[in-house]
Amino acid sequence: MTIRIRHLLAGCALGAMAASPALGASIEFKDPTGDDNGPGNYVYPTDAVYSPGSFDITSFEVSPKGKNVEFKVCVNSKLDDPWGMGVGFAVQMAVVFINTAGAGNQGHQDGLAGLNIKFAPGHTWTRAVVLSPQQQSRVTSASAAACP
């Protein structure tokens, strides 16, 4: 079952970002289910709250919405709040790294603190958008029609 995560970035100054098509059209990337082990050796944390598919991205979409940009990430798992944080879900959090500086090493190679990632030379980033948990009612209503 594909579950929908949708987050509209109100007031976001990323309207002119390079990742969004210059002509104002949406762009969508599809990804098959069942490939959430990276190059084959990634494993889920051992805590039982991380169910299979929790980090299996099935699609990613970027759409201009006036002066804002909407990001939509779909995963192959239900949205859970296993730690009872009261915000609807706590397992999934997507981070979108954007390079607005163009080609070369004009941005950051290290990812955000705590992510333990480093980008290859020439593939740096200048902006990061974090799609974080919201209240369950907002997540449920926003995700109802987000992904087929």
Topology:
Layout: E1 3-9, E2 27-30, E3 57-65, E4 68-75, E5 94-98, E6 127-131, H1 136-143
Antiparallel strand pairs: 1-4, 2-3, 3-4, 5-6
Summarize the structure.
This protein has 148 residues and is mostly beta strands. The chain has one helix at 136-143, and strands at residues 3-9, 27-30, 57-65, 68-75, 94-98, 127-131. The chain has one helix and six strands.
Q: How would you characterize this protein structure?
A:
It is a single chain. The protein is mostly beta strands and 148 residues long. It has 1 helix and 6 strands; from the N terminus they run ββββββα. The strands form 2 sheets. It has a 4-stranded antiparallel sheet with strand order 1-4-3-2. It has a two-stranded antiparallel ribbon with strand order 5-6. The longest helix has 8 residues, at 136-143. Mean pLDDT is 76; it is low at 1-21.
- What is the number of helices? 1
- Outline: globular
Low-confidence stretches: 1-21
Tell me what portion of residues adopts beta-strand conformation.
Answer: 25-35%
For the terminal residues, how far apart are their CA atoms?
A: 10 Å
Key structural traits:
148 residues; mainly beta; four-stranded antiparallel beta sheet; two-stranded antiparallel ribbon; disordered N terminus
